[in-house]
Amino acid sequence: MKIGYQGVPGSYSETALQEYFKDYKEEKIEAIGYSDFQEVIDDLENNELEVIVIPVENSTTGLIARTVDLLRYRPIIAIAENYQSIQHTLWGLPDSSIEDITEVYSHPEALSQCTTFFESHPAVTAKAYEDTAKAAEYISENGKINQAALASHRAGELYGLKALKKSVQTESLNTTRFYIMKHAETVQLEGDILSLYVETKHESGALAKFLQVFNLFDCNMESLNARPISGKPFKYGFFMEVDISQMTSPFELLWQTLEQVSEYVRLLGRFDSAIREK
């Protein structure tokens, strides 16, 4: 089974992949790292991959827009979720100290999860990099004593770096949520959580009418996030997650009703809650 993720060995996405598939024994797993999320999703859509693992939400910074925005119009779907505790370590060269550091490299999401550190170290500049583990690799190869990376414990060890400060993240319970996704044509969906994206009709009260459907079907709204629609300035689409565990009507009837009261709606996933399972 070919499974894609964004990053290199030691990235948090790779860790989520390993955690979710640790007991999988049906066939050999081949984990394939990509430089960006667009390529990962493209290869799943084109059936070059069977599964992908991508981050969609963080407990500190919220929705990860750079990934979920890519899902709006794609024939791929989430079949499960996975939660990973994200503990960022500041990694430098073996002979460096935290006093030497003036530049810290990491993925933009990781940098935004460590704002308190940068506020308390005003002389240190945050440098956006394509991936947390890739940033650790860069520090190792570049060999500059004033540079460091924010990355996982595994990434720092993989690239022979020295831990200058552990748990740099602002929130101690910093957690990232990942979707496990497949091509929509290859799965039979089940589960109590629906993930969907909707663009409402251009009429008064359109969003309220759409949300009222969930009340009528005894569904509970778990989250709602607005995102700009590309090519339509100041028009917004909405990412939603809904708990349908108390619904007694057929799912098909719910979906038909949602289609009737929206301009566009796509099912992004249906799965059981990983938190509830625990």
TrEMBL record:
It is an enzyme of class 4 (lyase). It catalyses: prephenate + H(+) = 3-phenylpyruvate + CO2 + H2O. Transmembrane segments: none annotated. InterPro entries: ACT-like_dom_sf (IPR045865), ACT_dom (IPR002912), Preph_deHydtase (IPR001086). PROSITE patterns: ACT, PREPHENATE_DEHYDR_3. Residues 2-183 form the Prephenate dehydratase domain. PANTHER family: PREPHENATE DEHYDRATASE P PROTEIN, PREPHENATE DEHYDRATASE-RELATED. This is Prephenate dehydratase. It comes from Jeotgalibaca ciconiae.
